[in-house]
Amino acid sequence: GGVEVLKGLGVLPPAMAALGAYRCIECNEEATELYRDYQRGVLRISICKSCQKPVDKYIEYDPVIILINAVLCKAQAYRHILFNTKINIHGKLCIFCLLCEAYLRWLQLQDSSQNTDPDDLIRYAKEWDFYRMFGIASLEQTSFFIGIFITLWWMTPEMLKRKSDFILLLKALLLSTYGKLLLIPAVIWEHDYTPLCLAFIKVFVLISNSQAIRVTLNLNRILPWFAIFFGLILENGVVFLFQKMGWDV
């Protein structure tokens, strides 16, 4: 029936939702339910009391359509994913994105190396290089997030009063880095325009991060970019530190 379909999409039934656990995807107001079940597969989407529009029209949409809307960075799609669905892939997605970035850096490092000796010691060194790139990518992303949190806490302390606010924003940032998954196809289908593709991927990830911050904290468009700017400054500071230490990053 309709309830089973919604469960398959990760949408929690009203009985499982806490008071005000949902958000209207149009106006961001809290809602107590997304739909009402009249039994026998008859469902009626709830109407927002504030804007008089459906609380979440995406509960009837195919996941592919939702993904396309998320790729287009529509605020409504982000609110649906962050507030009205139960998604627990933040950690796994983060690790996989970091692996993609580490692999890209490792591959570029091997391309710059002229040593083709198949000796076991050389192979071990190359394997260690990959782990080192993963660690560096992890530290850079952590620095980027810390810069964002510090900036937002400094400029809007009332927005991040509770631990749950920090956790929600962290999950939103981790989910919004999904664009890094495009790094692997960009490397596999290597072309003269690969550096340009990598630059576009970087910009897309930053736009996604900005939209995630804006939707999570219900901010204007300017403040998230300030936070991202300071996050990039801290991240580049870490890169500069590694370079001063003589590490290839």
From TrEMBL:
GO cellular component, one term: endoplasmic reticulum membrane
Family annotation (Pfam families): Arv1
BP GO terms, sorted: intracellular sterol transport; regulation of plasma membrane sterol distribution; sphingolipid metabolic process; sterol metabolic process
Entry's localization field: Endoplasmic reticulum membrane
Keyword Transport belongs to the record: yes
UniProt keyword annotation of Transferase present: no
Membrane topology: Multi-pass membrane protein
Keywords attached to this entry: Endoplasmic reticulum, Lipid metabolism, Lipid transport, Membrane, Transmembrane, Transmembrane helix, Transport
Transmembrane annotation, as ranges: 130-154, 166-187, 222-242
Function: Mediator of sterol homeostasis involved in sterol uptake, trafficking and distribution into membranes.
PANTHER family with a match to the protein in the record: ARV1 (PTHR14467), PROTEIN ARV1 (PTHR14467:SF0)
Family in the record: Belongs to the ARV1 family.
Protein name, UniProt field: Protein ARV
Protein's organism: Loxia curvirostra
